[in-house]
Structures are given as C-alpha cells and as structure tokens.
Amino acid sequence: MKYNKLGDSDLQVSEICLGTMTYGQQNTREEAEKLLDYAVSQGVNFIDTSETYPFPNKAEKLGITEEYIGEWLIHQRRDSLIIATKVAGVTPLTWIRNGQNRIDSANVTEAVESSLRRLQTDYIDLYQIHWPDRYVPLFGDGDYDPKRERETIPITEQLEVFADLIQAGKIRYLGVSNETPWGVCEFCHIARQLNLPKIVSIQNGFSLMNRIFHIHLAEACRFNQVGLLAYNPLAFGFLTGKYLSGIPKDSRLDLFGGMYSRYDQNNIAAAAQSYADLAQQNGITPAQLALAYVRSRWFVTSTIVGATKIEQLQENLASVTVELDETILTEIDAIHRRYPNPAA
C-alpha cells in the first residue's frame, strides 16, 4: 500500500480509501467492523463517511454509519487513522436539520458536533462539503441552467465557518465534493485572498466510464494543489462485470435500481463487456482493471472503494499490486473512444 500527500496538507493517505455508505443499510455493525478491521490490516489508513450515510438516506437511519465507525474507532489508535466525513448541502430531505440545511454557521456547527459525537472522536481529519450550497447540476442532472440558480451562502462566509472550527481543533482540513472547476478555483482564490482555510481535496466521481474529471477539473486541481478522492470507481458495480449476465439478488442495482436511472443506457453494458474482456485477456479481474486505471491517473490521490463482503474488499485491495502497461492503457483509450463517458 502506498501513501500519498493529500493536496497541500500534511496528511499522508493510503492510495485506497475505505468507503462506508452501506454500513447500517446493507451491512450490520458486526459486518462493518470486520470490513474496517480487514482494510486496516492491509494498510488502509483512510476512512470516508458522511452524516447522510447509509445511502439511500432514510430518516430512521440517519447517522448510523458514523455510529458504527465510532463504536469501532474507540478501540483503535486514533492518531494512526485519517477519518473523513461530510456535511450535507441544500437538500429536500426534511430529516436533515428540518430540510433547511445550508452551509452556514448554525448548520455546519450542528453537523460537526453531531458527527464528532457519533464518531466518538475529538476531531475530524478531513471535513467535506458533500455537494455545493449553490445550484449546480448533480448526479446525472443534465446541463447547467441559469434559471435554476438560487440564493446561496457566499463562499467567504462558508470558509469563515470552517476557519472557526479549525481554530477550535474540531476539524483539521477542508474538502469539497461534487464540485465544478469554477467552484474549486473560487474556493481557493478566496481562501488565499482572505487568509481563510483552503480546500485540500475534492471527492468527485471518476472511473473508466466517467472520465469527465480529465477535461477541466484536472487542470483546476493541479494548479490549486487539490487532490482527487475518486468515488464510484467501479461505476455502480458495472465495472466488476457482475451485471453482464443479469442483476444478482441483493446487489445495489437489485435493491435500489430505480434511484440510478442514469445507468440505464445500452452503451454502459457494451462498455462493461469490453473492459471485462480486456481484463480477462490480461489475467486480472474487471474490478482490478478498473481500480488500477483510476489509481494510475496522476491527479488521483486516493481511490474510494466500498464493499459489502470481505471477498469483494479483498479483490479491491489486491488491485494495488496491478500496474497497467502502455499496451493496456492504449486498449483502454480505444474502448473509451467507442463508449465515451457512458456513466458520467
């Protein structure tokens, strides 16, 4: 396991980050602890969660994932682990602070205190804005539409809130998620201009089927020293090959497929088959090909992998031994040209 510096922070994070959004929904507390134990035993020091997990969000399960991690965390050496969590942005989910959530002082302070309590820790290493306070198209929402712009908390005010929390020792570093090039540049510009906390990371989707980050965000993050934490590197499981012959029982597509209509496209299946064939030709699994590709990109600091079973986690972590040569990368680019970004 390699460790990479996260942006311009002093955090050294494992190249694989353990994602936890199934804990409390598809995984029991006992299963979650086994997954956490195994990941740490293999060198993972970076764990990502959110106040909104498990996902899908339900009122009666809000915060359970953090609670599971907290019960496990009190038995660990805290200073050897990097814990990341997130605060929800504007949301129609009325059970998150009565549906009035904003990235303002009252909401963020309440969110941080609640996460600290559930995680049973005195500080959060990386605190992330789960999605922007302002309007941006999210989660397959289509093109940017100025008519949908809404009143927003100024970025300066948002950063001032986090400055107070960092000064109080409750969070160490700030990151964003589901952000745009404009957002990254504006957060960094204002932080430097006003001597406020600068973001050190961005958590956005990136995979063989979603290479949009390459186009503009890679440049914005490079010049602002912001590291990518790549989520959904297996494209909702399509890049594992498990959906090539149907939908397995209790898979996320079986359980929650209606929430992921943007994956219901013919070229996703064709792309998944092509990548699976390429993996087989090179003696690795489709998941390992997908994860090795993400890990090979110069702008990726850590790849977030989730798993509901130990066997899945073992396969995913084994991908760190896979190095893709130029021949394979050329084949990947050829497939990408045939099926560009079907899961973006």
Automatic annotation (TrEMBL):
It comes from Planktothrix tepida PCC 9214. Belongs to the aldo/keto reductase family. Aldo/keto reductase 2 subfamily. Pfam families: Aldo_ket_red (PF00248). This is Protein tas. Keywords: NADP, Oxidoreductase. PANTHER family: NAD(P)-LINKED OXIDOREDUCTASE SUPERFAMILY PROTEIN, NADH-SPECIFIC METHYLGLYOXAL REDUCTASE-RELATED. GO terms for molecular function: oxidoreductase activity. It comes from the Bacteria. Residues 15-335 form the NADP-dependent oxidoreductase domain. InterPro entries: AKR_Detox_Biosynth, NAD(P)_OxRdtase_dom_sf, NADP_OxRdtase_dom.
